[in-house]
Amino acid sequence: MKAKNRTGGKEVSDFPRQYRETNYGSYRLVSAVGILVIVALLLMIGAQYVKQCLVKDELAEYESRIDKLEIRRDTLEEEIERLQDPGYLEVMARDRLGLVKPGEVIFQLED
């Protein structure tokens, strides 16, 4: 409710000035707390997003390592199968260890 002031003809509120300032202060306090809550929530969401990105990168790295290890496992399994063959073992013994059969003569040519 507004009333006219006797001196200047301006409208003033029916509530005392102190009450209006106190009420305004409480609105400012509630607004400030609200803004702080919103900022805190945004910071938490941002932190979770960063953490999620780091976890995705780590997962991709582990998947890459798994793929490489699976390829290595397959290679080793193939090598195990080849080592079961006596002919392959003989070739490996001749090449790597320089073994010869009894009665064989080896000729080595030097470059």
Please, what is the average pLDDT?
A: 84
Which outline best applies? rod-shaped
Spatially, the strands of the biggest sheet line up as 1-2
Radius of gyration: 43 Å
- Major sheet details: 2 strands, antiparallel
Global structural class: mainly alpha
The domain tally reads 1
Helix content: over 70%
Distance between the first and last residues' Cα: 114 Å
Strand content is 5-15%
Low-confidence stretches: none
**Count of strand segments:** 2
Spell the H/E element sequence.
EEHH
Number of helices in the DSSP assignment: 2
How would you sum up this structure, described in words?
With 111 residues, this protein is mainly alpha-helical. The chain has one domain. 71% of the residues lie in helices and 5% in strands. The chain is built from two helices and two strands, in the order E-E-H-H. It has helices at 17-83, 86-97, and strands at residues 2-4, 11-13. Strands 1-2 form a two-stranded antiparallel ribbon. The protein is rod-shaped. The termini are far apart.
Compact overview of the structure:
Helix content is 71%, strand content 5%.
Main features:
71% helix, 111 residues, rod-shaped, 2 strands
